[in-house]
Amino acid sequence: MIDAAQPRPDDVAIKDFETTAGDGARLLLRWYVKEGAQPGAAVLFLHGGGPIFSSVSLYDGTVSRYVSSSGVSFLSVEYRLAPECPHPTPVEDAYAGLTWLTEHAGELGVDPARIAVMGDSGGGGMAAGLALLARDRSGPAIAKQILLYPMLDDRTTTPDLALAGLTTWSYEDNATAWQALLGPACGGPDVSPYAAPARLKDATGMPPLYMEALELDILRDEDIEYARRTAAAGVSTELHVHPSIPHAFEAIAFDTAVARRMKADRIRVLKGL
User: Fold this and answer.
1) Contact at 8 Å (CB) between 263 and 250?
2) In this structure, what are the phi and psi dihedrals at residue 110, rounded to the nearest 5 degrees?
3) Angstrom distance (rounded) from CA 119 to CA 48
4) Residues 6 or more apart whose Cβ sits within 8 Å of residue 172
5) Second label for 170, Cα 20 to 30 Å away, from 92, 149, 217, 251?
6) Which whole-number Å values give the CA distances from 214 to 4, 13, 142, 178, in the listed order?
7) How many CA atoms are closer than 13 Å to the CA of 197, on its beta-carbon side?
8) 32 closest CA partner among 92, 4, 72
9) Residues with catalytic roles
10) Residue-wise pLDDT tens digits, 137-161
């Protein structure tokens, strides 16, 4: 969700940290905090991009606006990208960032019981995979999943003719990204739900979910199904299906009524952490 045309707020301070991934690699962690903000909740943020492109820096404006509008601090993780670093490297990098945030919560003024994970598109899928990984490893605790039109299912390959000519993230884009992340396993029976969270068999014990799906997005059905299965497992679930807009619409047409409504919902959820 790279909306660089919007102004970056001047009331947000940014500081870079580093942590070590499980394989010894050094990872950039970028901390965003609103000036004068009180200690409280925080968000572990994972940027979109496939996960084959984009970066923490490209999302500086987007993340800073969330922080400025909500007062909630964010930590963005510079996870390594496929195909050079296929699964499980990206989600393990995200887990290293979550662990670091939890361990440093006291010095950052963060309540470790109020840490959410958030991401859009490929980053949203990784946030869901991270939430599952943290559940299965019995921590760190995650207070909420905030998933914005996330990329969840490597099996989304059959074109919906009703979307022809309307998509901004195509089936070809989707196939390229999944094949880069999963290699020969893509589409087969042995794909990990930590990589493709639509493969999750049981959502019991997952964090509460806020989900956005978009009507003209090839990811729409997998997002709705993920929310349905989460709700069916007894997990508190809020789902919004925004009509008549494609993937990442609000980043392209940010000064529209629907984009303002989407932002308002996200800020409401962030303030409620």
Assistant:
1) yes
2) -110, 135
3) 7
4) none
5) 92
6) 21, 32, 25, 20
7) 32
8) 72
9) 121, 217, 247
10) 999 999 999 999 999 999 999 999 8
Place of tokens 């965003």: 32
126 neighbors 79 (Cβ within 8 angstroms): yes
Quick one: DSSP state of residue 208?
P
| Six-digit token string for 231 | 């709700």
CA 210/CA 190 separation, integer angstroms: 28
Q: How far, rounded to the nearest angstrom, does the alpha carbon of residue 245 sit from its chain's CA centroid?
A: 19
Q: Which two tokens stand for residue 173?
A: 């884009």
Distance CA 46, CA 32 (A): 13
- Spell out the alpha helix ranges (H) of the chain: 60-70, 89-103, 105-108, 122-136, 171-182, 220-232, 249-252, 257-271
Instruction: Classify strands 209-216 and 110-120 as parallel, antiparallel or unpaired.
Output: unpaired
Distance CA 150, CA 269 (A): 17
Please give the DSSP secondary-structure letter assigned to residue 188: S
Question: Beta partners for 95?
Answer: none
User: What percent of the chain is helix, strand and coil (3-state, nearest 5)?
Assistant: 35, 25, 40
Which residue type does 151 have? M
Q: How far apart are CA 25 and CA 20, in angstroms?
A: 6
Backbone conformation region of residue 36, classed left if phi is above 0, alpha if psi is from -120 to 50, else beta: left
pLDDT for 5? 55
Give the pair of three-digit tokens for residue 170. 């195509």
Q: Please state the length of the chain.
A: 273
Q: What is the DSSP letter of 9?
A: P
Judge contact between 115 and 189, C-beta under 8 A: no
- What is the tens place of the pLDDT at every residue in 21-56? 999 999 999 999 999 888 899 999 999 998 999 999
